[in-house]
Amino acid sequence: MLRSTVASVLASLLIAPLLPATAQAATEAPRVPEAVGAGGVVSSVDPDASQIGIDVLRRGGNAVDAAVAVAAALGVTDPFSAGIGGGGFFVHYDAHTKKVSTLDGRETAPASADENLFVENGSPIPFPEAVTSGLSVGVPGTPRTWQRALQRWGTWSLDKTVRPAEDLARRGFTVDATFNRQVTDNAARFADFTSTRALYLPDGTPPAIGSTFRNPDLADTYRELREDGVNALYRGDVGRDVVQAVRQPPVAPGVTRNVRPGDMTMSDLGGYNAPLREPTRTRYRDLDVFSMAPPSSGGTTVGEALNILETTDLSKETQVQYLHRFLEASRLSFADRNRWVGDPTFSDVPTQELLSQRFADSRACLISPTQAMTSPVAPGDPRNPVPCATVGAPAATPYEGTDTTHLTVADRWGNMVAYTLTIEQEGGSGIVVPGRGFLLNNELTDFSFTPVTPGVPDPNLPDAGKRPRSSMSPTIVLHHGKPVLALGSPGGASIITTVLQVLTQRLDRGLRLVDAIAAPRASQRNGTNTQAEVAFLGTAEAEALRGLGHTFASTNEIGAVTAVERLPDGRWRAAAETSRRGGGAARVVWSSP
Ligand code: GLU
What we know:
Elements: H1 2-18, E1 34-44, H2 47-58, H3 63-77, E2 87-94, E3 99-105, E4 119-120, E5 123-124, H4 127-131, H5 142-153, H6 158-171, E6 173-174, H7 177-190, H8 194-200, E7 212-213, H9 216-228, H10 231-234, H11 237-247, H12 266-270, E8 276-277, E9 280-284, E10 287-291, H13 298-309, H14 319-340, H15 351-354, H16 357-364, E11 404-411, E12 416-422, E13 475-479, E14 482-488, H17 494-507, H18 513-518, E15 522-523, E16 530-533, H19 534-537, H20 540-547, E17 552-555, E18 562-566, E19 572-576, E20 585-591
Parallel strand pairs: 16-17
Antiparallel strand pairs: 1-11, 1-19, 1-20, 2-3, 2-12, 3-8, 4-5, 6-7, 9-10, 10-13, 11-12, 13-14, 14-18, 15-16, 18-19
Helix pairs in contact: 2-3, 2-6, 3-6, 6-9, 13-14, 13-16, 13-17, 14-20
The structure holds glutamic acid (GLU).
Glutamic acid (GLU) binds at residues 400-404, 422, 424, 443, 446, 470-472, 490-492, 495.
């Protein structure tokens, strides 16, 4: 076994340099939901992207180098979920210092924005009109995130790291069913922009499944970023093209859609920063769960729910009681999220208080084992936790898109990265920057257009330079400072419940990681109905939950998780979806199952 490992190590060392990415044929690499072994692991939704990450690890790069390379590759193969026109949150565990740090690469509103950004004649703009507009485009945070992550923790240059993705964009990749479906779903609005139509509907139809898709404009943009640095976007001609596309969206002649322009300027781009933020930290049993702090609501909401759940031992509950408590904890923590979380630079967000066990206990008090609560439930006051008390009116959970992407990496030194990145809706604003090959985000629609509950302060109204509240929850779990698990998911607000469900199924209910990811999902976000996948609705547990008063609304897929975990013997396991979004791509450097 040792000999075969050594042989495969040698083989990979010998073969890797002989196989530059450009030489590979454009056939789709296999989708594998689980991989176990040593030398580092990558899990993403896409086989080409995961393979690029593995190649970086194999060639001596660390987890951060690989994460940036995978993200850049996802900008090619998963461009409707993420890319340099968007933003995200990068969570890093440093095996040397045992410290978890985060970078906030969230998009910002332009300097001219105020709380009426999405209000016209006293009424909110219809949501779909806001989505497909220049108005909803935030200043992209992804290039700055890559630069800062590499500078701080990486060992490779941006030049070297983005190179494989540039090659992939140039040589092309095989269109799969998800890519084809995503264009089909967006065809009506993509057709309305000259640039987007030319790239994604070249013959008036979506690229066929099995065909090779190339994006030479994106390859050239990546080359410019590699050669000139990310200031090509923040201060240079890529940025000028972004500003132009926002201020004057490239609407095709004869199109009647009302595409509102945005007001982004070069000075908005030039002033963009991706700050380091303290992660949220939640003590759960003997584990430390680190995640993203505001402006994401991911860390506080997953953390509060875990603290609520910790008031009972989930490993000893029946499956029905486990699910009941999972739904009730989600419901309560969403009530608090909606009331209290926004960009901390603009309002006083009680991050620590939301994560205190005392507050969680005061909320757990509301859970009955025999009867589901009726949503919307009112928030509690984290600054003054009183058992079972609530304050003020409930605030609803606004809509968020469901298409983002998450990648998870660990390297041979034990460093880990959990990185969730997005352009918000599937296809973002629908606007490809002409000549540049990437879509602009519509992240600013994550703001409340008007206060969600009249008369109740809303920390998530737009403002100049403000970051809209997110739900992204890239999460890293440690035990006494040592790696246990890293994971995350797309899915808008359902990211939070998805991460919570996978965490508890793995940590408390003893499911194997790949099974915890594959298990049917339900998502309660302080709404009247709990969203649930069809497979969930068909279970005996769902029937029993109905008996406790839960009501469900059927939905297609919830989330697309990728995760990695450290095994007790020091090996790593990467895991991904078995079927959602066509299945994910788990990869390991040296396989030893
Ligand atoms: N914009 C959402 C957020 O930041 C993510 C959207 C998605 O997952 O599709 O939470």
